[in-house]
């Protein structure tokens, strides 16, 4: 039996699950941009796969948060706001969430969720768990929504999307985040 998938079979999978197609497209575009960081066509195409409507679609099943211990108080605020807004959020501190079928391990959460809320600070950039989670999402083509909590240099992360800035105006940051991930009714 041949284990290779045909183009027709792949197109059928993509038709049934646009997120898989978008993740696959993001993987390819990120690889191109890693080799050719100034490729404007690839950068533009990648940004189209990260539009608000795409983030909303991907977030409807829930999001995962990555943050360091020093940023836990802020992460808890984000978690609470999103949960009150009706979104499922996986976070280490709250991994025993409300339902029996909700993800209980970090690895399963990475596999299950299509959106990572990456809380950024200098401490987070030096946290092995935060960076490993970021890398898993980046490599799998999943969406990464950067939340800039404290000033830090994030150019090496190759996010290709403007972070939601919480540094000067927390309320504006929360409004922008809620707009981006809100669940359509």
From TrEMBL:
Gene3D superfamilies: Toll/interleukin-1 receptor homology (TIR) domain (3.40.50.10140). InterPro entries: TIR_dom (IPR000157), Toll_tir_struct_dom_sf (IPR035897). It comes from the Bacteria. This is Toll/interleukin-1 receptor domain-containing protein. Coiled coil: none annotated. It comes from Phototrophicus methaneseepsis. The lineage of its organism: Bacteria, Bacillati, Chloroflexota, Candidatus Thermofontia, Phototrophicales. Keywords: Receptor. Residues 63-177 form the TIR domain. GO terms for biological process: signal transduction.
């Amino acid at each position: 039996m041949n284990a290779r998938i045909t183009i027709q079979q792949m197109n059928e999978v993509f038709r049934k699950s646009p997120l898989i197609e978008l993740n696959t497209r993001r993987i390819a575009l990120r690889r191109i941009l890693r080799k050719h960081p100034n490729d404007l066509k690839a950068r533009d195409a990648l940004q189209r796969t990260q539009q608000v409507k795409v983030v909303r679609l991907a977030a409807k099943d829930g999001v995962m948060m990555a943050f360091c211990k020093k940023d836990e108080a802020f992460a808890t605020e984000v978690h609470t706001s999103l949960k009150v807004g009706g979104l499922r959020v996986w976070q280490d501190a709250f991994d025993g969430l409300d339902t029996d079928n909700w993800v209980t391990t970090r690895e399963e959460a990475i596999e299950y969720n299509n959106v990572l809320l990456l809380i950024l600070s200098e401490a987070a950039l030096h946290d092995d768990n935060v960076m490993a989670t970021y890398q898993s999402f980046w490599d799998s083509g999943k969406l990464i929504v950067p939340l800039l909590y404290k000033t830090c240099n994030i150019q090496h992360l190759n996010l290709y999307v403007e972070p939601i800035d919480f540094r000067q105006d927390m309320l504006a940051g929360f409004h922008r985040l809620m707009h981006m991930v809100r669940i359509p009714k």
